[in-house]
Amino acid sequence: MRFRHPDGTTVHLAYCSNVHPAEDVDGVLAQLDTYARPIRERLGRDRLGIGLWLADDAALALDTDPSMLEDLRVRLATTGCEVVTLNGFPYAGFHDEVVKRKVYRPDWTEPARREHTLRLARLLTRLLPDDVEVGTISTLPLGWREGFDAARTRAAVDNMAGLAEDLAALADDTGRRVALAVEPEPGCRVETTTQLAEVLGDVAGPHLGACVDLCHLAVQFEDGPTAVAGLGAAGVPIHKAQVSAGLRAEHPGDPAVRAALAAHADSPFLHQTRERSGGAVRGVDDLPEALAGGLPGEEEWRVHVHLPLHHSDEGTTRPELEASLAALVGGPTAVTAHLELETYTWGVLPEGRRPADAADPVDGLVTGIAAELSWAADHLTSLGLTELP
Questions:
Q1: What's the domain count of the chain?
Q2: Alpha helices in 175-284 (DSSP H)
Q3: Could you tell me which residues are beta bridge partners of residue 341?
Q4: Rounded to the nearest 10 degrees, how much is the dihedral formed by the CA atoms of 15, 18, 21, 26?
Q5: pLDDT of 356 over the 70 cut
Q6: C-beta of residue 257 within 8 angstroms of C-beta of residue 251
Q7: Residue 95, in any domain of the structure
Q8: 3-state secondary structure of 26
Q9: pTM (global) more than 0.90
Q10: Which of 3, 51, 106, 383 has a beta carbon 3.0–4.6 Å from 14's, enabling a disulfide?
Q11: Could you tell me if 176 and 135 are in contact, meaning their C-beta atoms sit under 8 angstroms apart?
Q12: 321: domain CATH number?
């Protein structure tokens, strides 16, 4: 889905395919027919944006077998889908029974991360629509924080800067620019946009910048408009934004609220939890730890659980999302051109947050993602953007 910003920028809206468990090429092809085509048809659009997730095995196969890559290009065309961004954060195993901290490996100190990301970049230059010259790849914020001393931080940033040079060479060869977008996340070496600006320093530019996840911003109690302005002032371009909402508990000491929170606790994913008290943000690495007394529970909690955007109850950070989205694309200029919905948690959400027809898992997921995209499209038009036919 494409939108025209008043300044003339084409803003792309996509949903991220990391919600689907496929980790080989056959699985990636199948999910386009099983999910993407029905979502597009449910929306009544001729074109659907996909933020494609390619596990390393799939990426390697596509990079080394031109016929496989051509099959993917044809399938994207026949299902009415287009790719301008890839989610390069999960390397593999994103739908394992237990994911937790495994999603942060390999980190940016390890050669495998740079090799994987460059492989994705080569693929993206071949997958971009003919009329699009810039693609983006979101990636993890260096790695999980434990053990990340100054030396490892320097090594990770050097690897990112080296990849940016590789991407510049790739642009010279292909005429298409791919930008790496680093995504701050609670618990990682880079948790906030302020830390990202400090870490990237003068290496940020057209091939290296930020991916702003609006759930992560809210969980860290960052003010979205301030964060967007701060990255701009620091010279860090926002190449991509993930439009996602987190879990909010205004009264975490209330037994009913704690019971609702506990419904999210048994999950394969980490649910980093934060509480702001006296101007300071305190945090634990997972929701069960918070519920067991790891946080005081005296002030509002925000939890890293990606919730459906179209759910407007008080238990989400959607107000913060809307303020951040206005700062990104609601002003006189578009700060970013790539927006990706990343609700990968549909399969582990409590029943009350799943689609009404979730008895059929496929149709339920199609219904849910279509509803999110419809909400996002309506919200973009309310900000003054015009959907392109």
A1: 1
A2: 193-200, 214-219, 224-233, 255-262
A3: 15, 243
A4: 70
A5: no
A6: yes
A7: yes
A8: helix
A9: yes
A10: 51
A11: yes
A12: 3.20.20.150
